[in-house]
Amino acid sequence: MAHIQLKSISKSFGALEVIKGIDLEIRKGEFMVFVGPSGCGKSTLLRLISGLEQISSGALLFDGEQVNNLVPSKRGIAMVFQSYALYPHMTVYENMAFGMKLANTTKADMQARVRSAAQLLQIEHLLERLPKQLSGGQRQRVAIGRAIVRDPRVFLFDEPLSNLDAALRVQTRLEIAKLHHDMKEVTMVYVTHDQVEAMTLADRICVLRDGLVEQVGTPTELYERPKSLFVAGFIGSPKMNFLTDHFAAEFDCTTLGIRPEHIEVTDVENAVWQGTIIHTEDLGSDHFLFVDIGASEPFVVRQNGKLLGGIGDQLRLRPMAGLLHRFGADGRPVNGVGKENKSCVQQTQTIGDALGFSDKPF
Ligand SMILES: Nc1ncnc2c1ncn2[C@@H]1O[C@H](COP(=O)(O)OP(=O)(O)O)[C@@H](O)[C@H]1O
Ligand SMILES: [Mg+2]
What we know:
There is one protein chain. It is built from eleven helices and 18 strands. The chain is 27% helix and 28% strand. The protein folds into two domains: 4-232, Rossmann fold (3-Layer(aba) Sandwich), CATH 3.40.50.300; 240-355, CATH 2.40.50.140. It is globular, with a radius of gyration of 24 Å. It has a six-stranded mixed beta sheet with strand order 6-7-8-3-9-10, sandwiched between helices. It is an alpha+beta fold and 362 residues long. It starts with a strand and ends in a 7-residue tail after the last helix. The site of adenosine-5'-diphosphate (ADP) has 11 residues, from strand 2 and helix 1.
């Protein structure tokens, strides 16, 4: 139940500066996800919040009170890591109660708290088992339960799903979402390199890049209005298509971005791009067409419903109205008015409108 403030937080290991001055507010009860490529500093930032690492400079506040020098056990936090680290010789119940034993909780209170956490996580039937008798997903739930019974005001997760197989990952992700729903007052900070996890769990996402905040916003904001090429390429699956050279020049930008789901198949008159299908992926509900339009990489087009073509077929394509992203040489969105393009003449919504930076037609 804490409001967390990071003020110009930096962290160096020797001469290596890993966190380079981060300002961020995490609201009470918010589910904040740190996302970014491997090595960008996600775990380090989480460990600074937990107190497992010492902050080099800046201030960390919980509910307005500076906690830079407070030991982890005094911060009211609970952490769940990628590896569950349960005690192998203790039952699930004992594993969950262990932290409270050390904290001198009464037996009745301890039992009540373990029961209630077990109920929340639907592991009541497992309380007498040993960790080796559990599946990976169940073990991770026990680890989460062990964190819950401590009644933390901040929950910190560091890639808790990355050791689970795909099906269990989805299931456990749902459970974590439910946990957030059931424990509304608890602030949650969650680290992942998986943008799907970030999009589905977060109230807000903080995209980190090389020790700095690249953009903070709701999943929808990041998806619709990425403030950089980096965020545009990181958020969304499959990835946004990027076109350069003459493809971008036609739209008065250095890089033109368009998501696979924002491209439609069209006729000769309205075509903006055309090319040959070189590969298809059929996922049942969705189809992905990989089209060679003469760019350096295949252009990925998502189609739902009936598949409109196979390998070798010619395809004419155009962007859906208002859903193009234009970036300049600096990797930032291009502001202002671009050259008129035949694809955009009959569009009702302007591209600038959709990106929220222009009131003039393209
Ligand atoms: N204890 C440490 N000592 C030295 N360098 C470290 C230490 N912990 C992390 N680093 C370095 O800090 C950078 C960020 O690491 P980390 O926060 O683990 O990244 P992420 O979790 O985003 O993958 C990496 O270059 C890593 O090698
Ligand atoms: Mg990490």
